[in-house]
Amino acid sequence: MLDPAILFPSLLNGLTTGAVYALIALGLTLIYGVLHIINFAHGAALMMALYGVYFLHEKLGIDPYLSLPIMVPVMFAAGYGTYRGVIGRASHGKDENILLITLGLSIILENAALYFWNSDTRSIETPYTLSMVNVFGASISLPKVVAFGGALATTVILLLIIGKTDLGRAIRACAKERQGAKLVGINVDHVFAMSFGIGLACLGAAACFLLPAYYVNPQVGNGFVLIAFTIVVLGGMGSFVGALLGGFLIGIVESLGGLMLGESLGQIGIFVIFIAVLLFRPQGLFGAKA
Amino acid sequence: MRSLALIALLVLVVALLPLFVTSGFALNFVIMVLYATLLGQAWNILGGFGGQFSFGHAVFFGTGAYAMSVLQIKLGFNAWLALPCAIALGGLVGTALGALSFRYGLKGSYFALVTLAFAEVFRILANTFEFTGAGVGLQLPLQESAANLQFATKTGYLYTALALCTISLLVAWWLKHSRYGAWLTAVRDNEDSAAALGVNAFRVKLIAITISGALMASGGAFYVQMYRYIDPHIAYGSSISVEALLAAIIGGMGTIFGPLLGAAVLHLLSELTRNYIANAPGVSLIIYGALLVLIIMFMPRGIAGLFERKR
């Protein structure tokens, strides 16, 4: 069963899937780390971004990777606007309210997609969809390798934004001490909305990397949302490095779990990890104690 | 006492309904509202009175539904015997889940996520094992007789739903008027202060999730008896969890009649959209979602908040 000839490709496969998971989780962990809210609409937003990439390809013939400069700003704007227009106003200062608001938004988005584009599962044809590359003797599909690289690049960019720019400093200030940030003249609402926008922009990037090897339907976000939560909790809420490593770990667990327990039961490993981490180490593997 | 009188009035009106109303559509509407009230009230006990927001109440619903089906189909139980077993099992799952999550101090968003994850685990398990019918689901054989809790007419289901719904309303009434209910709302409002006053917060929350799980399981059992079919997606899917919390939140959390108001409004809205706007998948859910957002933005106390006297 644990023949290296099967194990190694499976491991590699898990690693590349994990990179995309990490990309999705990065947006979620940023939003959590700064706003202390769990964005339940994250999966639905990813689904919308995937539809965006799909229609850009089908209607305008734009290659998914070339959609990046379109999707990232569009998702950013959508996130900024949603925070300013709905989430920021509706919270009444209670975290649970935001959780419910984002749940409401995810219901709306998911069913709007169902209404406008029906429940068909769609995927795109690109010249490289079926290309394989050889990595240390294991062949793996080219889009997955690109997604792996893209996820790493996005993480680096995100870390640079947070670490080196004025916006990043403001974001960190608001995450640590809302009141103090306000006192030194930071526009907290603006910074919160920026964080939410950047979180969704990550999804725009994730969608561009994901679609060549994946598909889209109105429910596609649901599969990702719990996995992304698992990664965020595993890596420690708000930790970027944690999200990246957590993503890889979950990708591998899923891949090996599927290999050993079969497709259906294999997924259970993820949720067992999720529940165990929530119960025994809610600060995550890399997070500081809250 | 006024609430009790209202409950009695509701029971009387619904019980006499079949004498005056023969339209299957109208009776079905009332059954659906009572059933949604039951689910909403189950969520309300834990979420509204207890302040512990669950996103995975399907875990109890599905357990009740599957217990009801498996006991009857695989073990040959009579439906009337299977029902209390299913309810007890739902309560047991509630106790277990609560013992785990409250022991480790999970609250707020973390609690919501852990309940969601449990529902997902149960869904995968039900999807995998043969004795739950795996992905195909379980079909209850047709044996229409009151002795089997299956009815040829809507009236039988109406009374079953009414009985279960009334129990849930009485539980909510008891929470409003008992020492235990006061403890529960104290824990919701400020757990540390409640604990400082000598309330055993862990035990209080554990009892709430047990009652909530048992009520939700009775809803699952009712579903199986009415539709005679269950599969992992219906039982443990997120839509049933959402339905339960929507009725409670839109109607008014922590109130006796909130879930009833919420259930009635939601079902009325879905009938209206079906008839006047569009009979397409998703439309009524779009409206539900929008309603949820609007209620939280502008009426955080729900519809029941409109009827409460201003203090």
- Note the quaternary state here: heterodimer
Question: What is the end-to-end distance of chain A?
Answer: 42 Å
Reported for the largest beta sheet of chain A, the result is: 2 strands, antiparallel
The share of residues in helices of chain B is: over 70%
Q: How many strands appear in the DSSP assignment of chain A?
A: 2
- In terms of DSSP E residues, the strand content of chain A is under 5%
Identify the overall geometry of chain A: globular
What this model shows, in words?
Chain A is mainly α and 290 residues long. Chain A has a single domain (4-118, 133-280), classed as ABC transporter involved in vitamin B12 uptake, BtuC. Chain A has helices at 4-35, 42-60, 68-90, 95-117, 142-164, 166-176, 178-183, 188-210, 220-235, 240-261, 263-266, 268-280, and strands at residues 132-135, 138-141. In chain A, helix 3 crosses helix 8. Chain A is globular. The mean pLDDT of chain A is 84. Chain B has a domain at 31-238. Chain B is 75% helix and 1% strand. Chain B has helices spanning 2-20, 24-49, 58-73, 79-103, 108-128, 154-177, 179-189, 191-196, 201-227, 232-236, 238-251, 258-277, 283-298, 304-307, and strands at residues 138-139, 229-230. In chain B, strands 1-2 form a two-stranded antiparallel sheet. The radius of gyration of chain B is 19 Å and the shape is globular. Chain B starts with a helix and ends with a helix. The mean pLDDT of chain B is 88. Classes of the chains: A mainly alpha (290), B mainly alpha (311). Chains A and B meet through helix 3, helix 4, helix 9 and helix 12 of A and helix 5, helix 11 and helix 13 of B.
